[in-house]
Structures are given as C-alpha cells and as structure tokens.
Amino acid sequence: MNMGESAVTLTTEQLRINPNHQIQVIKIGHQRTPVLIIDNYFDSLTSVLSLAQHTAHFAPDEATYYPGVRSKLPKEYVLASLKPLMKGLYNIFNIARELASAPVDNYFS
C-alpha cells in the first residue's frame, strides 16, 4: 500500500447521512459558476474523526503547493459519501448522464 492508503472496513454508522442536511447553491463570478455549501451532511462527525485518527497517515504533500500535511481518503469512503449527492451534482453542473464520476485528489487536510 502507498502512504496514506489503508484497508478500511466501512460501517453504516460511518456513512450515515443526516436526513436534515442543508445544501445551498450560490453562483459566483461573471460566468455564474455554481458553488455548493453543504451543512450537517453527516449525522455525526465522530466516525469521520475516528477514520482520520485510525487510518490516516499525514505527511507533506510533495505533489502540490499545499502548505500543510495531508492524507488520502479511502476511495470507498469517498464514493459512498458522494453517492447520495451525485444526481444533484449532475443537475447543478449540467453534466451529461453518460459521463461517469471519477473523484480524484480526496484528502484529509
């Protein structure tokens, strides 16, 4: 495994989405680019903090100019966390339905 990657078993507790989360879409700039602000997405941050504490391997990011340390998020966690949002993201950003999502550069920072 590469640094920052680890085998992770996800539980339903870790992925519990708060049914009362709030999504706000604002548009910025001359091109009115949509920006999403998502509040209270997870039912509890305890699982997210636990995941970071027990699986993350923080180190300087030598591929970018990020000034702090980072650790890659487990891919399956990213996909499971984004899945409930994908239909809305495709609509907001006018993404063609035949295009598959492929999240990249997902980190604890």
Q: What's the arrangement of secondary structure elements?
A:
Elements: E1 22-28, E2 33-39, H1 46-55, E3 59-60, E4 69-72, H2 75-82, H3 86-92, E5 107-108
Antiparallel strand pairs: 1-2, 3-4, 4-5
What would the keywords be for this entry?
disordered N terminus; 3-stranded antiparallel sheet; two-stranded antiparallel ribbon; single chain; 109 residues; globular; DUF6445
Q: How many strands, what sense, and barrel or not for the largest sheet?
A: 3 strands, antiparallel
Determine the number of helices (DSSP H or I, runs of at least 4 residues): 3
Quick one: overall form?
A: globular
| Strand-residue proportion | 15-25%
Number of E-type strands:
5
InterPro entries: DUF6445
How would you characterize this protein structure?
The structure is a single chain. Helix content is 23%, strand content 20%. With 109 residues, it is α+β, with helices and mostly antiparallel strands. β3 (59-60) and β4 form a beta hairpin. The longest helix is centred in the middle third of the chain and has 10 residues, at 46-55. The protein is globular, with a radius of gyration of 16 Å.
Give a short summary of the structure.
InterPro entries: DUF6445 (IPR045617). The chain is of the alpha+beta class.
